[in-house]
From TrEMBL:
<dbReference type="Pfam" id="PF00982">
    <property type="entry name" value="Glyco_transf_20"/>
</dbReference>
<dbReference type="GO" id="GO:0005992">
    <property type="term" value="P:trehalose biosynthetic process"/>
</dbReference>
<protein>
    <submittedName>
        <fullName>Alphaalpha-trehalose-phosphate synthase [UDP-forming]</fullName>
        <ecNumber>2.4.1.15</ecNumber>
    </submittedName>
</protein>
<keyword id="KW-0808">Transferase</keyword>
<dbReference type="GO" id="GO:0004805">
    <property type="term" value="F:trehalose-phosphatase activity"/>
</dbReference>
<comment type="similarity">
    <text>Belongs to the glycosyltransferase 20 family.</text>
</comment>
<dbReference type="GO" id="GO:0005829">
    <property type="term" value="C:cytosol"/>
</dbReference>
<keyword id="KW-0328">Glycosyltransferase</keyword>
<dbReference type="GO" id="GO:0003825">
    <property type="term" value="F:alpha,alpha-trehalose-phosphate synthase (UDP-forming) activity"/>
</dbReference>
<dbReference type="InterPro" id="IPR001830">
    <property type="entry name" value="Glyco_trans_20"/>
</dbReference>
Length: 492
């Protein structure tokens, strides 16, 4: 295979780096995947193929004649983006029924299985005439994009596109296919929610890759176990290899780092200062912070319940502490997400009513996507809570500590991807144990200066050890090794 460092890469994901409004204005896509891929695409020559997600995107795609066009990266450099327009009804079935919630809920253990999901024609059709079609549209774009390139490298991303690799493999057996999954890989029984045919197709789709990557060793182990349990495939757990149809699929963990320099640069913007001034004017003795997409996996409700409990058990902290929650509304076309937002607002009202006073609101809820406002809060928190029930990486757990200026304490759920790296210096909580979280809040707020310093320093050290360039290089090194025919070795 040709040297990948010189070769153009093709990246494929559902959400692209930017979204176009119908008036042509641009906004940046949100979520961990976009953050990761923006780094990747601006580090090397790459064409990023993504779904056109609204009318503005579709207009932009048509204006480009369905071809790739250049976009400037906010962190410097530029890359080519190709937006793929799918049938509107098919896309809605793909995104709002099958990918979210069906797959997302399975992979985050969110189904309340005695009640949901019911698998009926609605769900099966969402798979057959939604998920499959959108995957096919993106696969077609990939095949067109790599036409003429010999032994191209295609990097597919996330749970929206499990079928793309097989669709590409059928037409380009010479392509090197790499898939990174940004969310947890749940244990085998959770997948039994899906009808066997659908499940098998999804697994065969992703197993058409040469390499499958995850954020943690634990997701890698789960994936290998699933291949054994659900498909009865031959698996080498030590080497992280699945054998299927005379091929080997390497399964690897590449924890995603953040770009500390770029994140700190954002935190120094003038607009951040304005938010800081305001925040410092209203600041009580202590600030507790959470920053998340308003997603069910993030466990927002238990976070507020724990704060409620903490205030009840430690009345000496009343009027001295504020819990600021910046939540970006997400997937509001999916009913489960809309309801979740309503429940969040209702609980905040209850807690504020129970403990608040005429000039103190215990929880300050900000339902908006404003990176600069979040940065201002990152700089000044005393406690940062990331209590997700189960979650892929949780980049916020890495962003907070490198921007924070007060040696703030991180409270971190043991089921977040970031915990595998940061657990040692965080206060670890079981995300379901509300009392444990209330205790952790108290412990964080009463911790000695020395311990805070020690923990904060430890977190910063780990977070800055690797950067997104390393993440990409680690993956490309494996691509080169495998393409050159190297044997898999024990992962240790
Ligand atoms: C997570 C997923 C991404 C997704 C992001 C935002 O980080 O892993 O694939 O893009 O959430 O969700 P959205 O549905 O808005 O793209």
């Amino acid at each position: 295979m040709a040297e990948t460092a010189q070769q153009p890469l093709v990246l494929v994901s559902n959400r692209g780096p930017v979204t176009f409004d119908t008036d042509g204005s641009i906004s940046r896509g949100t979520g961990g995947l976009v953050t990761a891929l923006t780094g990747l695409a601006s580090h090397r020559r790459a064409t990023w193929i993504a779904s056109a997600m609204g009318r503005g995107d579709a207009d932009r795609a048509r204006a480009a004649g369905g071809r790739a066009f250049s976009v400037d990266s906010p962190s410097g450099g530029s890359y080519d983006v190709r937006l793929v327009v799918s049938d509107e009804v098919a896309y809605e079935r793909f995104y709002s029924i099958f990918a979210n919630p069906m797959l997302w809920f399975i992979q985050h253990y969110l189904w309340d299985q005695s009640n949901a999901p019911d698998i009926r024609s609605h769900e099966v059709e969402a798979y057959e005439y939604g998920y499959k079609l959108v995957n096919q549209d993106l696969a077609d774009a990939v095949v067109e994009e790599i036409d003429g390139a010999s032994e191209p490298v295609v990097m597919v991303h996330d749970y929206h596109l499990y079928l793309v690799p097989q669709m590409v493999r059928e037409r380009r057996p010479d392509a090197f296919l790499h898939h990174f999954v940004h969310i947890p890989w749940s244990q085998s029984d959770s997948w039994r929610v899906l009808p066997t045919k659908i499940r098998d197709e999804l697994y065969r789709g992703i197993l058409a890759n040469d390499i499958v990557g995850f954020h943690t060793r634990s997701y890698r182990r789960n994936f290998l176990q699933c291949c054994e349990d659900l498909l009865e495939l031959e698996v080498d757990h030590d080497q992280g290899v699945v054998r299927i149809d005379d091929r080997e699929v390497w399964v690897r963990a590449y924890p995603l780092p953040i770009d500390a320099k770029a994140t700190r640069a954002v935190s120094r913007r003038a607009r951040v200062r304005e938010f800081e001034d305001e925040l410092l004017r209203r600041r009580r003795d202590f600030l507790i912070l959470r920053v998340d997409r308003a997603d069910l996996s993030k466990n927002v409700l238990r976070g507020f319940s724990a704060f409620d409990l903490f205030l009840e058990q430690h009345p000496e902290f009343r009027e001295r502490v504020t819990f600021m929650a910046q939540l970006m509304p997400s997937r509001t076309d999916v009913p489960e997400y809309r309801e979740y937002l309503e429940r969040i607002e209702a609980l905040v009202a209850v807690v504020n009513h129970r403990h608040g006073t005429p000039d103190w609101m215990p929880i300050q809820l900000k339902l908006r996507d404003d990176v600069e406002e979040a940065m201002a809060a990152y700089r000044h928190y005393d406690v940062h809570i990331v209590n997700a029930m189960f979650d892929g990486m949780n980049l916020v757990a890495k962003e907070g500590p490198i921007v924070n200026e007060r040696d703030g304490v991180s409270i971190l759920s043991e089921n977040t991807g970031a915990h595998e790296e940061l657990g040692e210096f965080a206060l670890t909580v079981n995300p379901f144990d509300v009392q444990a979280l209330a205790n952790a809040i108290h412990r964080a707020l009463t911790m000695s200066v020395e311990e805070r310093e020690h923990r904060a320093e430890g977190l910063r050290g780990i977070i800055t050890l690797r950067d997104p360039g390393d993440w990409i290089d680690e993956q490309l090194a494996d691509v080169r090794r495998k393409a050159a025919g190297a044997a898999a070795v024990d992962l240790g």
